[in-house]
Amino acid sequence: MKKTVYGFIILLIFLLPVLYIVYEALSSSFSLPFLNIPCSILVSLLSNTLLVSIIGIFFAFITGLGCAVAVVYYEFPGRSFFEAALCLPLAFPPYIVAAVYKEMTHQYYQFGAGIENIWGAGLIFGFTLYPYFYLLLKTTFQNQSVIYIETGKSLGLHYRQRLFKIIFPMAKPAMFLGLLLVIMEIISDYGTVQILGVRTITAGIYDTWFSMFNQHLAAQLSLVAYVIPLLFLFIWTLFSRNASFYNPPNRWTPVKKNTLAAGQAILSVCLLSIPLLAGFIIPFSILVSWAIEKLKITNTAFLFSNLFNTVILAFIVTLASIIISMFLHYLKRNSRPHSFIHAVCWIICAQYAVPGIVIGIALLFLTSAFYTFPGTRWLVSSIFLIVFACIIRYLCFSFFSIESGMKRISSRLDELTRILRKKSIYRIMHIHLPLLKPSIMIGCIFTFIIVAKELTMSLVLQPFHYSSLSLRIFSYTRIGMIKNSALFAIVLVLLSIYPVFSLSRWFNVQESIS
Amino acid sequence: MLTIQNLSRSVKGKKILSNINIRIKSGTIVSLLGPSGSGKTTLLRIIMGLEDVDEGSLSFGDTLLSKGKRIFIPAEQREFALVFQEFILFPHLDVYKNIVIGLNHLEQSRRRIIAEELLELFEITHLKYQCVDTLSGGEQQRVAIARTLAVRPRVLMLDEPFSNIDRKMKEYLYGRLQDILKQYNMTTILATHDHAEAFFFSDNVYVLKDGEIKDENPPSLLYTQPADPWVASFVGDVNYISGYDLKTLFHFHNQALCDDSFYLIRPEEFLISKSGHETNEWVIEKIEFYGFYRTIRVTLQNGKKINIKDLNRAHYTVGEKVFLRIAKTGESIVLQSAQKRKGTDHENNS
């Protein structure tokens, strides 16, 4: 009973923004929802969003899949380097890459027709978001026991048949998770599409709220933006309801890598260099050259204060997310499957599907509604709202990381501590926490990177005189002064590089554990 | 005919297989019998083409499959098939799709006919569209074997196929599989650590220990005339009895018997009775009940012990005095002369 009450309270807090958006969207002066949205605008916003998503997902998927297959199944000079380095674009927020390439194409226009269109936005998303597919597929391929491939060989299946009939179908969950992450990132993105002048649904929500001051329309568009990822999630749930994809055998054997011939090895190195160059090396090098060029006029005081704000925000959100995730797991542990607490956890994690702009707008609605109450002004004058919004949206990262660790702790261990008459606190401190340390660390790293790069919610909810690295970079790039923010961008990327490498290493550790 | 010549394989300096020579005639069923770590699975994987070797050659008929580290025909082109110990069904496919996965070269209608025939043979038609995760161990095993038979391999290899399933299902599958293998007239290699399984299925049994072939014979010969004491004790229980004891305690006379040597006699060769003409009274030390038979450990005052496998239903109690004799006379019961060894699972001292 106590668990249900706690679960209900947490659920209510996490659902507050979405519930408010639904209320606001449906309580417009017209009885039919969406009647307020001009059809042509909605169609244009939706088609742009869909097109950018499809192009972005296509490039991200092809690149991620190709890279994962190359580093897992083949041996060639520099493979270990590429295995680690291909994660690097994850450290780059897409809007910085977009701004760099936009500036470049402006400078050297003869090289192309510019990237300020849907294709350009899709390509930028493809090159910056492919590490989601890459990391997930790489881990899946590495964890797929080689015995499945050998069974395929034993049944006379050739290389291509083994790929398309065994290896890829068994990696469908990883593919879908990657697709979901990428689509959520694209739908939620505001900076990239704004810089490239593509009007997606997020840009529509932002403009409706801040330029047209139309709350109802913004809420209705937010609802549409919320429904798109949920629709994907729903389709996947339907599709995978009775399917099973991975059944680990008792004996796990690592994948044997085929050594490539010289020509094939050179071709592989060239192909693998493309995403690395496009997603990291080129934009980073350009940023470095711009930073050197503008070093004298860069305000280092701003740089340090913005860095401090970014780190503090990421730290607070990470800490709070880990604590809340742990609490949720202790509510969930030992409760029956399909119980209320399980549903609560699922709904809370599904908040990642809510685009950042939706949460931001909802919190703005709420605070504007309560603004007249005494003692509530601190809500808008502090980073509380950004922290709250980030926790709501990004809690799933820490939750799922801890869950992967929790699953490895047998319930027999809990029973053993009871038999030994130890208290719950002893169980948590001396058994669970030491075993969960790696999972907690990975949750921290994931949350830290995501929050440090976060822009959309910060943009909507930033208090006066507050700026973080991402806000500073965006404010410069918006007015075409990306070069002046180059050093800020480099610092933000460097801030994420170490965690990204740790993440990559952790994925390898998972492989060896399996 | 599958021919393996002088095959050796080592991993990190440790010999896994050493000088293996095997010839398997088409249509026969042979077993690789040996304890865990004896190299059975490695040998199957080498025959399948999943692992290379240091030395030796492997050929099928006139075709050289591999020689030394060079593999001439890769696994997927050998038309051999291996059923792994863990079944390894593809979890993303249902039973039917698992069975037809290797039949891509055939038309849809032909695939369906083959699958339905096998589903019927293995009595799993009702599971046709079921997710493989929901199947029991026995059902999974049947699907795995049906899937392998569907591709009609020239050589079928089964790696400990019954180790993960319960006894009753195992007995059912023994009969079913033997009938099907005979019907398909398929060259089959079975790797197992269970001598009863090997005896039941095989025309010929190869006994492996530490990567070497210790013995090779049809099952009945292997049981009665094993090559050495280790093989004798691996394929059944044995008692070690000295030549002197055989003469004095059991009046077993043979010119070849040497007083100081030890001889191996199976427990079922002894007969136990409550009365007899024998001079020595044995005392029952322990009785173990196994359903249709019992093992009874008897001891003499001087500490000599013998294990007996008793199929009679006479009532005995621990501490009771009994008489013992050897059921048959003749050399066949004396398996081997050997130096007395200590500490192995399959031996008992007399």
Structural class of chain B: alpha+beta
CATH topology heading of chain A: MetI-like fold
Strand content of chain B: 25-35%
Determine the CATH superfamily of chain A: MetI-like
Could you estimate the helical fraction of the residues of chain A in percent?
Answer: over 70%
How many separate domains make up the residues of chain A?
1
The end-to-end span of chain A amounts to 37 Å
User: What's the CATH architecture of chain A?
Assistant: Orthogonal Bundle
**Mind describing the biggest β-sheet of chain A?**
2 strands, parallel
User: Taking Cα atoms only, what radius of gyration of chain B do you get, to the nearest Å?
Assistant: 24 Å
Question: With helices defined by DSSP (H or I, 4 residues minimum), what is the helix count of chain A?
Answer: 22
Strand order of the largest sheet of chain A: 1-2
How many angstroms does the end-to-end distance of chain B come to?
45 Å
Count of all domains of chain B: 2
Give the amount of beta strand of chain A, in percent: under 5%
Q: Specify the helix fraction band of chain B.
A: 25-40%
Helix and strand composition category of chain A: mainly alpha
Q: Just give the CATH class of the largest domain in chain B.
A: Alpha Beta
Summed up, what is this model?
Chain A has 514 residues and is mainly α. In chain A, 75% of the residues lie in helices and 1% in strands.
